[in-house]
Write a structure and sequence with these properties.
The complex is a heterodimer.
Chain A lengths: L3 E10 L2 E11 L4 E5 L6 H9 L6 E6 L2 E2 L10 E4 L11 H11 L4 H15 L14 H13 L5 E5 L7 H18 L2 E6 L2 H7 L2 E6 L2 E6 L1 H6 L4 H6 L6 E8 L2 E3 L6 E3 L5 H7 L3 E6 L4 E3 L6 E10 L4 E7 L6 E7 L10 E6 L5 E3 L19 H9 L1
Parallel strand pairs in A: 3-8, 3-9, 6-7, 7-8
Antiparallel strand pairs in A: 1-2, 1-4, 4-5, 9-10, 11-12, 11-14, 12-13, 14-20, 15-19, 16-17, 16-19, 17-18
Chain B lengths: L1 H7 L16 H31 L4 H5 L12 H7 E5 L2 H13 L4 H8 L2 E6 L2 H32 L5 H10 L5 H14 L6 H26 L3 H8 L4 H12 L1 H17 L2 H6 L7 H7 L8 H21 L1 H5 L10
Antiparallel strand pairs in B: 1-2
The chains are: A alpha+beta, B mainly alpha.
Amino acid sequence: MATIELKQVAKRFGQNWAVKPMDLTVQDGEFLCLLGPSGCGKTTTLRMISGLEAVTEGSIWLNGRNVTWEHPSKRDIAFVFQFYALYPHLSVWENIAFPLQAEGEKKENIHKRVAEVVEILRIGHLLRQRPGRLSGGDQQRVALARALVRRPAAFLMDEPLGALDAELRESMRAEIKQLHIHQHATTVYVTHDQVEAMAMSDRIVVMSAAEVQQIGTPAQVYYDPTNLFVARFIGSPGMNLVDGRLEGDRIRLPGTENVIPIPPAYRPGLQALGSAEVIVGFRPEAAMLSSDGGLVQGEVYAVDMHGAYKLLHVSLGNGAGNTIVHIRADRLAPYAIGSPVRFHLNMDMVRLFDPKTEKAIPRLSEGATVMSVSDLAREVGR
Amino acid sequence: MTASFYEKGPARPITESTRVDKVSPRARWLGKVRALLVLVFAFIGLIPIFVMGITAFKTRAEVVSVPPKVIFSPTLEGFVFLLTERAVASPARIEQLRAEAQVGELNLFERLALASGQEITGPSDYVRRLINSLIIAGISTVFSVVLGLFAAYAFSRFEVKGKDDLLFFILSTRMLPAVVVTIPLFLMYRQLALHDTHLGMILLYTVFNLSLSVWLLKGFIDEIPREYEDAALVDGYTRMQAFFKVVLPQAMTGIAATTVFCLIFAWNEYAFALMLTSDKARTAPPSIATMLGRGGIEWSAIAAGSLGFLIPVVIVAFALRNYLLRGVTFGAIRQ
């Protein structure tokens, strides 16, 4: 198994950056997702790791070995493609055996190893067929088998579930995760589906516009996005982002009476800001509706039934420039459109952003953390 | 109505298939009409070949008879005239030959020649010309397809500087009519001692066909998704191996089609062959045409020659028919 290290790796096509210089270390046995909208450079990054795309700058290290200019076939990496890329002129068995033949493996060994992965992926009944005849799920299993059979140092997967329908995608997602748990193989997985990334990965690299936005565990990118892009992109719906104005030790939100206290953890960070404008962010589940008054009030604008819960679209303030926030509500409680609601905010889950830089404002936190006090001091000092 | 369908489901159980992709009677009927049209078209197209076929087996008199005879007793006279050189025999010689025929010392061809008062003096050039055609067309086709395949692959997959200009330039070599370039070529070839050589003709046809094969094959290779090669590369193969193991098998349809096109051109080519060959490397098309000029028109011999000329191309097209008919990709990539 292996670690993968990217040092200042970048890719440029002419004048356009496909990937701006990025650093990344994938730990041994880690399942890492590259997540971002289409065209953000995540697939290019993956292809650079595999060697299918040459880097413009930087170096790539595999297990401490510099492989930047090594041929893809020499990197000991398996790649699973979005459209499977099974060789149409070969049978399923021949497809799986194909990489072993490249290694010049002995015949009986090839048979043995193919039989092993066929067992793991339960595709024994398909071996003689041509891939074109198989269903999408089976094709993806064969593609996984072809990757597994080599026992590579690392797996690279480029939206392997993107071409499947929703139901199949969910079951294949579980299968891939199972596979990862059993094989414990370092895996880099590209997806544009944040639900998939949240569900599967140990860590997520959020990318946008050729740049890494944040690297962190699913919980970190969900609760502590480093900037507005990540806050919007992760979660469905994304984080509620509301314009706020500092007034003493309080923040005024849109609407007549909507004022919340400044969370204490943000006090030092806000002093360094030097401006009264902030963006207040909170997840739908950070808001608690309450009948006996709450800090924030608004008006129900729309109600989405999600089955397990209702999602209220609440408009704060009124007039043309009103702000809509999403709030989670009990699935049984009735909410009439246009009726007034009030809610509290769980202040531990409120995040503040600088509207100018679009970055998260640093905050203190106790124990396991977002930023240590010394880091914060340095940040503030700058 | 729709609303109630969603709420209550179908009014009565659905027992027969509700598939909408079955062929409607109208479409089936149209299909038959289409087949009939194709049949009529094929029939009209085949008439000249049919006439050629029967003419090859007619006697001199039958060939020119009006109205043309469809039912006649076939003879190999045409083939005798095609394949042999003959001389008019003197009456004394004819007597002698008849006697030999009686004893059975003459073969079929000699007897047939004798019937029209002629004596066979040796084989004609026809077979040699046909062999020339086979060598020149065959080798030039192999060259143009192989070279074209590599060029097309490079154009399709790599960043080649000035790609569009190069491709246009390659195509432009085909824009001039043959007649325009024959004279300069003739002078060049004479200087280079390529006139009337197999090498010269092979070079010429290869160059001429290369434009066609590069363009055709590029189209076919463009259709093969790059992901297959990417997969082969990460599976541990070099680019060359990936080309042979993954691209080539999938390009077979295109290669077959290109081969047939190149072969047909090189096989049928007349203008260059007429100007640039005289004897040693002369191909079949000009030699059949020059038969017109030698003391009376031997229609049956010309028809027989054309028939023999058709056969190799038909064999190749027949051998490759599976590749020609198979779809371009039968692959596992959805796009």
